[in-house]
From TrEMBL:
UniProt keyword Membrane present: yes
Protein name: Branched-subunit amino acid transport protein AzlD
Pfam families: AzlD
Listed transmembrane segments: 7-27, 39-59, 71-87, 93-111
InterPro entries: Brnchd-chn_aa_trnsp_AzlD (IPR008407)
Keywords recorded for this protein, A-Z: Membrane, Transmembrane, Transmembrane helix
Length: 112
């Protein structure tokens, strides 16, 4: 029985046009940009603000298993993880793994 793959091809092409095309254009145009320009400082600031907004939303208004964790545990894990991230020379792996470990330990202690 032959299958119609046109839907899958359309999804692949649309996905490419929506994401990868712009990434490649960014790479091509990025070689001409001055890394110390005000425009790039603004772009970095906006990107950082968006990431932090999503992070704050996940901490304060979580879903799934994390929603069962008390707020003090979520805030404490984030705060301690950030402090250790700074103390270890801004190592991303430490900044990710420490809060996860604190959350897991806290959830086991709380009994969730």
């Amino acid at each position: 029985m032959p299958q119609d793959y046109s839907t899958y091809i359309l999804i692949a092409v649309a996905g490419f046009l929506a994401t990868d095309l712009w990434r490649w254009l960014g790479v091509v145009a990025g070689h001409r940009l001055n890394e110390e320009s005000e425009a790039l400082h603004w772009v970095r600031a906006v990107a950082t603000a968006l990431v932090m907004a999503v992070t704050a939303k996940l901490i304060v208004f979580p879903t799934g298993t994390l929603a069962h964790a008390p707020l003090w545990l979520r805030l404490g894990a984030a705060g301690i993880g950030f402090a250790i991230f700074l103390m270890t020379g801004k190592k991303v792996a430490v900044g990710v793994l420490v809060p996860i470990a604190i959350l897991i330990a806290g959830l086991l202690v709380v009994g969730i």
